[in-house]
Amino acid sequence: MVREESIDVNPTPPSEIAIIVEVVSPGSELPDRKDKPGEYAQAGIPVFWRIETRGALALVAHELVGADYLEHAPVTDTFGTRQPWPLQIDVPDLARVGPRR
Questions:
Q1: CB–CB of 36/22 below 8 Å?
Q2: What is the spatial distance between Cα 93 and Cα 90, in angstroms, rounded to a whole number?
Q3: Which residues are in the Putative restriction endonuclease domain (predicted)?
Q4: Rounded distance between C-alpha atoms, residue 13 and residue 100, angstroms
Q5: 88 CB burial (10 A radius; 0-12, 13-18, 19+)
Q6: What is the phi/psi pair of residue 95, to 5°?
Q7: CATH (domain of 29)
Q8: What would the pLDDT profile of 33-76 be if each residue is shown by its tens digit?
Q9: What predicted TM-score, i.e. pTM, was given to this entire model?
């Protein structure tokens, strides 16, 4: 998700990225958990969420503090945050496919 003022800038500079969300897939566990957080932190991206798909679906939030991410505990029910904007996410709903009725 990029900041509104950068919507038409291509490629988007990392300084204009408000949040990155990674979905951990079989075969990408190591890069998604170990490599990518360091790359995103080095780029200065303030918020990084990792969606864990093995076992119970979980959202793991990371907040940039200095040069590194502070990793928060996995959330498997309702995730609430004020960063990068106030919102709540029903984590189990992330697994639902198709339109809501």
A1: yes
A2: 5
A3: 12-72
A4: 34
A5: exposed
A6: -85, -15
A7: 3.90.1570.10
A8: 999 999 999 999 999 999 999 889 999 999 999 999 999 999 99
A9: 0.84
Q: 17 lies in which domain range?
A: 4-95
DSSP bridge pairs for 36: none
Q: Please indicate, yes or no, if residue 68 is contained in any of the structural domains.
A: yes
Which amino acid, one-letter code, is at 11? Answer: P
Within-domain flag for 69: yes
What's the chain look like in SS3? CECHHHCCCCCCCHHHECCEEEECCCCCHHHHHHHHHHHHHHHCCCEEEEEECCCCCEEEEEEEECCEEEECCCECCEEEECCCCCEEEEHHHHHCCCCCC
Domain total for the chain?
1
* Tokens encoding 97: 């496919």
**Amino acid code (one letter) for 63:** E
Residues found in the chain: 101
